[in-house]
Amino acid sequence: MNQSSEFSLRNLLGRIGFWFLILLILFYTLFPFYWAFVSSLKTENEVFQPATFFPENPTVINYESAFQNTQFTQGLLNSTIVSSVSVGLALVVGSFAAYALGRLEFRGKTLMLYAVLAMTMFPQISILSGLFEIVRESGLFGQLSSMILTYPIITLPFTVWTLTSFFKGLPAELEQAALVDGANFFQTFYLILLPLTAPALVTTGLLAFISAWNEYLFALTFTTVNPSAQTVTVAIALFSGRISRQEPIAEIMAASVVVTVPLIILVLVFQRRIVEGLTAGAVKG
Amino acid sequence: MDTSLSTERNQTPLIVALISGLFILLGIGALAWLGLSIYNDPTIAAAQSAEGSSNGSVILSFLDTYGIILPVLVIAIGLYLIFLGIRINARRITAAVWGKQVLLWLLILDAYLLAQTLGNELSAPGTYQNFLPALLLLIGIGIAGLASLQWLNANETAFIGSETLSSRSSRIAWNLLIPTIVILIIVAARPLEQTFIASLTDERFASNQPVNFVGFDNYAQLLGVRIDVLPQCVAGQTIAGCPEVLETDETGAPITTFPRARNYLDQSYSDLRFREVSIITLPNSQVVLSARDRDFIQAIGNTLYFTLFSVSLELLLGLFIALVINSKFPGRGLMRAAMLVPWAIPTVVSARLWEIMLRDNTSGVINSALVNVGLLERPLAWLTNNDTQIIALILVDVWKTTPFMALILLAGLQIIPSDIYEAADVDGASKVRQFFSITLPLLRPTIAIALVFRTLDAIRVFDVFQVLLERRALSMATYNYETLVQSQQFGYASAIGVTIFIIILVFTVIYVRALGVNTE
């Protein structure tokens, strides 16, 4: 785009070229979903034929068998439980910490801020063996609670960091007014600041939920001995067919579509907020 | 702050003295408990009395059981309790209000321990011989703590002075931070410490072998590399590892041969189990890179290769996309939403989508398209072919994260004031010139942060490698996982974890230094 130095040429072709680029970008981002959707409507046999862009005889049989696969449905349930609990915990505990870091002055604050920031980039893989031992010793190996215990490393620092910046952005007069009216710190927190940050809580919660829902490393490691505690990501990675011995590709695609659709809806609904939440930290730097 | 009030100071009320005593007693108790349990610890005693025990193994068994964080915390809390007790006895108001807070957390801890003790007793009666004393002690502390808290709440006037605003603010702040700190210690600091301690041992899961302290042996094994130069075999000269008579091709000319590294080099090469990682052939010699753990060195190579190419492609492509959509056009919101979708779906799902698209015959849409267009003669086995498998992973990763990169860069583009461009237009600067002298410099902080996050993510890549390649090619993270879960080598896997941690740390520091990232 920028290369064309001929102004008239730009005017002539600019519009067409621009929309062509937009379509190209959309095609690039969305084609794999289209492919998954098309494949999920094909029969297992058709999937192994040379690729076609439309199914010959669209069928929902793959969705039926995906939902009859207990590993998959159990995985959906497990993921919902684990992600909700760990996000709820992160929001409650994290909003306390964020209030302290965003609104209060105290010695050691800078250090804590750095610690939290460092934690948001913490490589989970490097403590895998330490956590593995802690999980084994506490008897949680192969249980849902092993993930509820460990997911805060993913959700909590992120929650604290994001909410801190939201708390910082609120005007300082709020609390002073509340304090003048005789409210204590906790009343100010619950009655005044928390309602104001509700949109931020929703955004942060959503982002944390997505990262917990998508987690794979811990889920895979801690549930190797107990398939019934697998989350949906592990279930999809280890998907095995009930009938055919061959990898049930169409069924995997149906399951992938099922997992993806709720996320697409969430993203469409909260698009503006998500972008704001994601980029808040990045562009201020 | 209350020195001027010394004249008002009469006899300390009995209850204040008692509460102060409770604090001091709890502090001493914490220290004594730590000391006693270390002194009585069976594994440490065993390590001490074991035949040929070294200081190393005693220290190791101490670290293995207690770590460093836990004892330091207990000592700090114990000393703080004693300090608070003394200050409460002196009737400082600050000490009293901090004391109340401490009591509250102690009561929560006490209730937790009580529930745990009772739960243990109910599930396995009689296994814990000190059950009754422990129970009574916990109940006693609970009652004394609760009573003290009640009294302190009701009788703040018994103390001298009033709490300053800054003390109040920092007291509330630390209270609010305690849950987060406790959770982060449990899920991050303690596991990191345990990983580091275990990395100094040869511990394995499901093994009856005693655990030995091996120092940095695991790291020496992991990172042991050497570079050697091997000469070409010459007929008539005796070079170690060369055949007596060189093989010849059809024309009778000798085939260029080099000795195997383990035959040519001294005994230590094979003793330490070095194996060739890569060989560069020069006109008359070969340069051989060998490693003690070939898999890990290859994993580092794979990971760095993956990181370098995926992050740079994402940056270029992301910048391009951001520039395209950085103008107002109908449907822009929808466009942003569409771009968020690849970011939002699980990496595992995206890996499986691409696995299907990359299938090795014409049922894979990529192969089918490339063959139809004529770019490929026959379908490629993208994911099993050594040359293409990491390229395929880079494609998958670029697809998944470029839109996210584009959105971050877009946000950065939008805070550049438009009047700068208008001024540049007036001055007659070309668009290309504007891009390089306005957009790029002003976008630098955003690019820096996006690069840091993406690089750190790419270095620890696990999901795509694990799902798409399994064991065919390893990243550092999948190698760590294999060593831990499949081979159960706890000590060795821990050393890998620590190594990854250090590599990521080094990258962070380099980036922060080079790009001047501001953390605030």
Describe the structure.
The complex is a heterodimer of chains A (285) and B (520). With 285 residues, chain A is an all-alpha fold. Chain A folds into two domains: 7-47, no CATH class; 70-238, MetI-like fold, CATH 1.10.3720. Helices cover 74% and strands 0% of the residues of chain A. Chain A contains 14 helices and no strands. Chain A has helices spanning 7-40, 44-47, 61-68, 70-103, 109-120, 128-137, 144-150, 152-169, 173-180, 185-196, 198-213, 217-222, 232-237, 249-284. Chain B has 520 residues and is mainly α. Chain B has three domains: 3-198, no CATH class; 225-292, no CATH class; 295-515, MetI-like (MetI-like fold, Orthogonal Bundle), CATH 1.10.3720.10. Helices cover 66% and strands 4% of the residues of chain B. Chain B is built from 20 helices and three strands. Chain B has a three-stranded antiparallel sheet. The longest helix of chain B has 34 residues, at 165-198. At the A-B interface, helix 1, helix 4, helix 5, helix 6 and helix 8 of A face helix 7, helix 11, helix 12, helix 13 and helix 14 of B.
Instruction: Count the DSSP helices of chain B.
Output: 20
End-to-end gap of chain B:
34 Å
Mean pLDDT of chain A: 84
What's the level 1 CATH class of the largest domain in chain B?
Answer: Mainly Alpha
Which SSEs are present, and which pair or pack?
The complex is a heterodimer of chains A (285) and B (520).
Chain A: H1 7-40, H2 44-47, H3 61-68, H4 70-103, H5 109-120, H6 128-137, H7 144-150, H8 152-169, H9 173-180, H10 185-196, H11 198-213, H12 217-222, H13 232-237, H14 249-284
Chain B: H1 14-39, H2 42-49, H3 55-66, H4 69-89, H5 93-123, H6 131-154, H7 165-198, H8 217-223, E1 225-231, H9 261-264, H10 267-271, E2 275-281, E3 285-291, H11 294-325, H12 332-344, H13 347-357, H14 365-373, H15 389-414, H16 418-426, H17 431-459, H18 463-469, H19 476-486, H20 490-515
Helix pairs in contact in B: 1-4, 2-3, 4-5, 5-6, 7-20, 11-15, 11-17, 12-15, 13-18, 15-17, 15-18, 17-20, 19-20
